[in-house]
Each structure stands twice: as C-alpha cells, then as structure tokens.
C-alpha cells in the first residue's frame, strides 16, 4: 500500500516562454489553416546543441559551464539569432527564443531562419578576462555548428560587440590563413572597425522607436509630450528611449535588474545612462528620480510601455494594472498569453516583438551583406534602409489586421508562417 504522505504531489506547472510561443504559433496556424505537414515541422526545432565545457578561472580553478544553441528552422536561409548570457538560459528558453527568431526573420522578409542560444551564467560574477575565455571556449566547442552560411549568432542579453569580436576571432582562427577573412560574417553585431556595421548598436532600439512612430502616424497621434516607461535600460531600452526623447516624448519610469525609478516630470535618458555607468550599471539612487516598487512597475501612469528586458513580464498577475494604451515589445516574449488576453479585453494595443524589435536582425542582415560583399556602408544610408524595411513590415501587418479583423500579433505570425509554408510548398515537398 502506498503511504499517501510519501507520494510527492505534482507541482503546478509554471507557464514558460516555450508554452507561449507554441500557443501563439498554433493560434496563427489555425487562423491560416496551415498545411498539417508544415505545422508538424514548425512545431519542433531542427537541432539542439547542449555543450558542457571547462574554463580556467583567474584563480587557477576550472569551472564547467553549460552552453546552448538551438536551431529551429532554416527553410528560408541560414539560421540567425542572438546569444544570451544569463542564469535563466536553458534548453526551453533557447527553443522558444529560436522559434521567435524564425517568425521574426520571415516577417522581415530576410533570407534567414531562426536560432538562439547562450550560456547559463551570471556574467556579473566574472572578470572580463574570464568572460573572454568562456566565450572563446564556447565558440571552439560549437565548432562547425555555427558558420557564416549556416548559423550566424549576434548579441542578446548581456552580450555585446566585444563578445561578438571574440567569437569572430576564435572562429576565424580555426580556418587556414587564406580562408580567415571570408568568415568574418560568422557573427553580426561586431565592433565597427572590426567588420561591424555603423548603427547596429542602435538598430533594435531605433526599430522599436520607429514602430511606435508608425503606429502614432497611423492613428494621427503626436508623440510630443507622451509619457513612456521602459523596463530594461540596456541596449534596446536605452536606444528606444533615446529616440523617443528626441521626438519629444517624456520618460517617466525605468526598471533594471536592480530596481525601478520614476519621475512624473520626466527623466533625462542621457543623465540616467551616465549615472548608471558610474554606478556599476545600476539605475538605483539616480538623484533626478524617486525609487519605485518594482513589483508595481507597469502601473506607473504613462501612455506607452516598452518592456525591453526578459520574457514573461506582463502576465495575468499584473496585466490589469497596466496604465499604458500602447505596449511596444522591445524584448522577446515579454507578454505571456494570459496577460495578453487581459490587455486585449482592456483595449490595449500591442506591437508584437517579432515586428517591434526586428530592427536588430535587419541591421544584422545589413552587416552580413556588408562583410560578404566587402563593402562599408554609411550610417545615414543604413538608418534609411532600416526605416524603409521596417515600414514595409509594419504596413503589411496593419493591412492584415484590417483585412482579417485581427490583432497585430496574429497578423504578424500569420504573415511570417505563410511565407515559410509557401517556401516548403514551392519546393514540392507537400503538394
Ligand atoms: N540586442 C538586440 O539587438 C536585441 C535584443 N532583443 C531583446 O531585447 C531584450 C533586451 O536585450 P538587450 O537590451 O540586448 O540586453 P542588455 O543586456 O543590453 O540589457 C538588458 C536590460 O534588462 C535589464 N534586466 C535584466 N533582468 C531584469 C529584470 N528581472 N527586471 C528588469 N530589468 C531587467 C538589465 O538590467 P541590468 O543592467 O541591471 O542587468 C538591462 O538593463 C531581450 O529580451 C532581447 O532578447 C530583441 C532583439 C534584438
Ligand atoms: O541580430 C540578430 O541576428 C538577432 C538578434 C536577436 O537575437 C533578436 O532579434 O532577438
């Protein structure tokens, strides 16, 4: 007989990013009546790589790290997507983020598939030299699983141009001397001066700003004086804020991993950025704003909310407190499915991640072309091309919502998935 007390009760399942992306995918697949064979293919990832690798620390000890690269689909071209260094990186997170990349590159009309990866690590606990060795060992261990015409990583949370330079250097050093420079486009988001693209640093945040601007134009709204809050003051959050401020909008609340600050009269983006640099990357204690309870961050009074940090931030637990009428998803997967239902019932518009933050991968595509063709592009032409490409995606999505009486996420997913379905059918695999 089983003693009831010794049987472990099943724990309630916590919704993860993978549940969300699959639910978003299945909803759009139902709407467009997706070919069942294509649905089967797109429901799973093509390749999943998990690598445990050793690295010597500054004190001489060896530590083992776990790195991931998940390649979801490459029907439209080489796998593409960032590398994240964060304690929350695991196989499910990498799967979900890889799937979002597939929809994002497809929606943007790029010749890419989707991948994502990273290392389960808190980088703040390691020295710069240790991070360099960790990155190089991970790159070496990934070997030919990445490559300029196969799978092209880029920056994501806690990785940057320096990280990409280490990866490019390590990967190129495995090639014969005459082949090295042909492989520079194995990663994008490199430093300018080392194969990087002018403006790739700001491309994602600029794109977030542009989609907000397009939405405002479409609705005859002026951004001047509009109040906005930003969760995550890193690459995406900072640049989105920078461009909105130039447009005359007012930053009234910011949250980073350390905490939150608010000022109803407005916060200077540059002052906050300079303060955080001088304060070990933390916005806490910024003298021109007051501290604010992080748990209540989304309830700050504002017109526009830009989640630009991690996934699953707006959920059924806080969606009813959101004050903004527009959510521009700078992050990947910041709103979960249950949170989104509440927002939609409340009439709040969401510019979905695969559209809103696609400026980054579009910039990466420009860098890849620049390296591949041995060209050097100028900032003005890059920002102009980026705007043109994003406007095309935005208009496609808005037209789809109007023609099919649906929301922007369903529209964006439907357009993205239909493009991949068409590629499979044109190849003649599924008549
Ligand atoms: N970089 C890119 O080109 C692209 C990024 N994205 C997405 O945008 C998001 C941000 O990426 P990126 O700006 O590059 O990353 P960064 O590492 O540059 O910045 C991340 C920011 O999020 C903050 N943060 C981390 N954890 C939390 C938390 N629990 N609560 C509040 N804030 C937190 C960090 O705070 P702190 O500094 O204190 O740690 C930091 O300000 C991610 O979802 C990423 O996938 C999407 C498309 C492209
Ligand atoms: O620039 C890229 O290739 C991808 C950036 C990224 O990881 C993302 O868009 O989420």
Automatic annotation (TrEMBL):
Lineage, uppermost ranks: Bacteria, Pseudomonadati, Bacteroidota, Flavobacteriia, Flavobacteriales
Residue ranges of domain Glutamate/phenylalanine/leucine/valine/L-tryptophan dehydrogenase C-terminal in the record: 197-428
Family: Belongs to the Glu/Leu/Phe/Val dehydrogenases family.
Keyword entries, A-Z: NAD, Nucleotide-binding, Oxidoreductase
Binding sites annotated in the UniProt record for substrate: 80, 104, 364
Record carries keyword Transmembrane helix: no
Site feature (Important for catalysis) residues: 156
Binding site for NAD(+): 204, 235
Chain intervals for the UniProt region annotation (Disordered): 178-197
Entry-linked InterPro entries: Aminoacid_DH-like_N_sf, Glu/Leu/Phe/Val/Trp_DH, Glu/Leu/Phe/Val/Trp_DH_C, Glu/Leu/Phe/Val/Trp_DH_dimer, Glu/Leu/Phe/Val_DH_AS, Glu_DH, NAD(P)-bd_dom_sf, NAD_bind_Glu_DH
Family matches, as PANTHER family: GLUTAMATE DEHYDROGENASE, GLUTAMATE DEHYDROGENASE 1, MITOCHONDRIAL
One of the GO biological process terms: L-glutamate catabolic process
Active-site residues (renumbered): 116 (proton donor)
Name of the molecule in the record: Glutamate dehydrogenase
GO molecular function: glutamate dehydrogenase (NAD+) activity; nucleotide binding
The keyword Oxidoreductase is assigned to this record: yes
Stored SMART domains: ELFV_dehydrog
